[in-house]
From TrEMBL:
Annotated InterPro entries: Aldolase_TIM, OMPdecase, OMPdecase_arc, OMPdeCOase_dom, RibuloseP-bd_barrel
NCBIfam families: PRK13813.1 (NF010386), pyrF (TIGR01740)
Any Gene Ontology CC annotation: cytosol
Residues that coordinate or bind substrate: 12, 34, 60-69, 117, 170-180, 193-194
Domain of life: Archaea
Domain Orotidine 5'-phosphate decarboxylase intervals: 6-209
GO BP terms: 'de novo' pyrimidine nucleobase biosynthetic process; 'de novo' UMP biosynthetic process
Species in which this protein is naturally found: Methanococcoides methylutens
Alphabetized HAMAP family for the sequence: OMPdecase_type1_A (MF_01200_A)
EC number: 4.1.1.23
One Pfam family named in its UniProt record: OMPdecase
Family per record: Belongs to the OMP decarboxylase family. Type 1 subfamily.
The protein's name: Orotidine 5'-phosphate decarboxylase
């Protein structure tokens, strides 16, 4: 993904009309559009292709299965037109290797969740976040997902992965994180959902976040 605005839209609306309206309104401010279960379960995987005409799509399916099932999921995601997939890492190296292999075949990207951004994200992830980050680097993933709600953790994770991997960071706005703080801590992109798509003017909200970050 090309870095222009350091902003990824999390498009967690559940209907096509709203999704396309919001995506069109903010497309000049975002480097990518992240779709996940809410929109894909609401409208089907075909929405990925439509959105991909506006911006590269990251499929946030937090893939977490055995290697063979992960392979099948990633193949479907990339065939549908997604530029990248988000996977979990706790399923182990063989599962992650399977996703990275498919991504390489299709020329696409894999981001691995290290520690989640919500309060419960510290319960099980905290003790293994660094190990997962190191595994993502060793496996040749494109980058990791790390919490904008805890910029100090983004700093820790950056130290582990160095500068070869990207950090994409959710938790800005609705979850309490600051875009500028987490970019200063070493994130490459922030991922923002509700603060943009629930705004009366998604474009203004996106523009304001871009201005705050001075990316
Ligand atoms: O740790 C994570 N936290 C998180 O919020 C990993 C994620 N993938 N996300 C996703 O980022 C979450 O599912 C949602 O799509 C987006 C944040 O949305 P919002 O809190 O800005 O509305």
């Amino acid at each position: 993904m090309e870095k222009k605005n350091c902003l990824i839209l999390a498009l967690d609306v559940t209907d096509r009309e709203n999704a396309l309206r919001i995506a069109n309104e903010v497309s000049e401010y975002v480097d990518s559009i992240k779709v996940g279960y809410p929109l894909v379960l609401g409208e089907g995987l075909g929405i990925v292709k439509e959105l991909a005409e506006l911006a590269p799509v990251i499929a946030d399916f937090k893939v977490a299965d055995i290697p063979n099932t992960d392979r099948l999921i990633c193949e479907q995601v990339f065939k549908a037109g997604a530029d990248a997939v988000i996977t979990h890492g706790f399923t182990g190296r063989d599962s992650l290797d399977s996703c990275v292999k498919v991504a390489e075949e299709y020329g696409r990207d894999v981001y691995v969740v290290t520690e989640m951004s919500h309060p419960g994200g510290v319960e099980f992830f905290r003790p293994v976040a660094e190990t997962i980050a190191q595994m993502a680097a060793d496996a040749g993933a494109t980058g990791v997902v790390a919490p904008a709600t805890r910029p100090e953790r983004v700093r820790d994770i950056r130290k582990i992965i160095g500068n070869d991997l990207h950090i994409i960071s959710p938790g800005v706005g609705a979850q309490g994180g600051s875009a500028a703080d987490v970019i200063n801590a070493g994130a490459d992109w922030v991922i923002v959902g509700r603060s943009i798509y629930n705004s009366d003017s998604p474009a203004d909200a996106a523009m304001k976040i871009c201005n705050d970050m001075k990316c």
